[in-house]
Amino acid sequence: MGNNQPELLAPAGKWETMESAVQNGADAVYLGGKRFNMRLLRPDFNFSDEQIRDAVSYCHEHGVRLYITVNNLYYQSELDELAEYLGILEKAGVDALIVQDLAVVQLAGELGLRVPLHASVQMNVANLEGAQLLENMGFTRVILSKDLSQQEILEISRGTSLGLEYFVHGDLCISHAGQCYMSSFLFGESGNRGRCRKPCRWAYVMDPEVDDYPGKHYFLAHKDLCLVTHLGDLIEAGVTSFKVEGRMREPEYVGFLVRCYRQALDAWLRGDGLETARHMEEELQRRRVRDFSTGSLFGTPGAESIGYSGEREPHFPTHPVQLRPLTVEECPVLEPPTRTDGLRLTVKTGDIQAFQKALNQGVDTLVIGGDNFHQIEAGWSSKSLQQAVELGKKNDTSVVLELPRIVSQRDLPRVQRLLALPGLQDLPAVMVNDLGTWRMVRELGLPVWAGYGLNITNARALQLAAEMGAKLVTLSRELKLAQLEAVLQVTNMDVEVVVHGPLCGMVSDYCAVGSTRGCQRSQVDGLGCREGEFYLLDEYGQKFRILTDQQCRSHIFYPHDLCLFGYLPLFADLGVHSVRIEGQYYDQEVLMRLIEIFRSAIQEMGQWNAGESFSQLLELFPGGLTDNPLRFEEAGLRD
What we know:
Blueprint: E1 7-11, H1 15-23, E2 28-32, H2 49-61, E3 65-70, H3 79-92, E4 96-99, H4 102-111, E5 117-119, H5 128-137, E6 141-143, H6 150-157, E7 163-170, H7 182-187, E8 204-207, E9 216-217, E10 224-226, H8 231-237, E11 241-244, H9 251-270, H10 273-286, E12 292-293, E13 344-348, H11 352-358, E14 365-369, H12 382-394, E15 398-402, H13 412-418, E16 430-432, H14 435-443, E17 448-450, H15 459-467, E18 470-474, H16 481-488, E19 495-501, E20 504-508, E21 534-537, E22 543-548, E23 554-557, E24 561-563, H17 568-573, E25 578-582, H18 588-603, H19 610-620, E26 625-626
Parallel strand pairs: 1-2, 1-11, 2-3, 3-4, 4-5, 5-6, 6-7, 7-11, 10-12, 13-14, 13-25, 14-15, 15-16, 16-17, 17-18, 18-19, 19-25, 24-26
Antiparallel strand pairs: 7-10, 8-9, 8-21, 19-24, 20-23, 21-22, 22-23
Helix pairs in contact: 1-2, 1-9, 3-4, 4-15, 5-14, 6-8, 9-10, 11-18, 18-19
């Protein structure tokens, strides 16, 4: 555990807010510049470069540390300006940078920066292995996932000397941090780039309806976090920095929050905190925006953590949009590629039966494993995974094991069992979607395939991934076409693009189905999500499918499946190593037909003619297909 004195960390979006935080007892303040941070929808907030220099002086004069958020994901076109900005921040004397993108780590090393790096909550570090990897990379602090329990935090603190930061108050996203792409899919505005349009705060209808929640309800609207009466629990768990959310709040309110938490934290450190904390909680309750919850600190959030009625939900100026699926006429009209070899086809399969069918379909790589879903009868077991590994070796087919999308501290034993499967040493790679499993795979001497959950969007991050042992990288699913092209034009790394499959927009520990149906998680027969298919319907009746995985996490999907079939010639010319079909959600008949269409197109790339094949795809998916977010223009250039 880090030996730092407990720190109260306050937000600031304006100069007056920073002053209020300092004057009311903050030990440190975090704020963002006018560029490169996660709060960019309000141009009247954030600090200019000159204001940052002045803020450093002001804070240091008052014995307060100042941290700067450089916590977006960055596009290739932004990297030169980003490098310049990092130099400005170092020269200004800021006390730390809060970062998400691996490119910042790579640039900081190349520039010889000495400013400490703190891993943003957007990195979704939820296990000890991830913290240890960051420590080895030179980070001094990690802002832990908000989805961790007190026990999980304690286990992490016992295995690392990193400072551990944890949110104690403020807004809570329903999705795992860094893993919510729904705003990108709907609007082309990425929450990972500070432009979230908050579809989790809309009203939906559950389909089929629930007796206790008929009609429209705010099924994804998490109550606000308030841990003022549990600071002692966090101190015992090893937390060293107590973070208050709210960079868009006004000065007086931030000062009020800081004052309450200052008094409570000081009382806890004196050993008589409970009475003071309860008094502060009463004060906070009187001025709350939403109702409060304890988040994930004492277990997985359920119905008690959601503001279903929306009565206290503040107004946010976005609303559902009527989505338009692709038509035949919208399939890109591209010339045959100049490069007609090298594009490989990867297919992810959902069970051993689909795997066996796909073995003889001319697929270059078959992906097994990942998450099983309660609503889909088939799935992977240890026995069937081992069978697939053996069949792949026997048939001389490349097989890659994918580890689960989300791996919290409590999930590590399951991952360890997967990595103990016989025959893994013979696989070309193991696919990972978080830093912790990356470290676990690398420690075993196995090649790493970096999945799209790692949110890699630029060549600098690709370079660091290669230095960390990645053999291949699946690029972020949030990239638009121009940004995808920019990366591919400057990298020699083998990269993959997902070209077909359902678009998972959110992953949440909160089970939207079970929480509204009185689910008994301890009894398999009592799982409400096994009763059929479930959807959230927006005001246009558009269906956002809900699937519940083996850990009872909700995976919420965009209404239409992704299809980038028309872009295959472009991907071939740009040197994409492989294109992937996310086939684990489809029945065997649909998947085999899908493989046939894509395989034939790749094999006959020199005589490219997309129209007929694309018509067949539209017939295969009558629910509609989309090429979002690839086709969206850059944020700020659209109406």
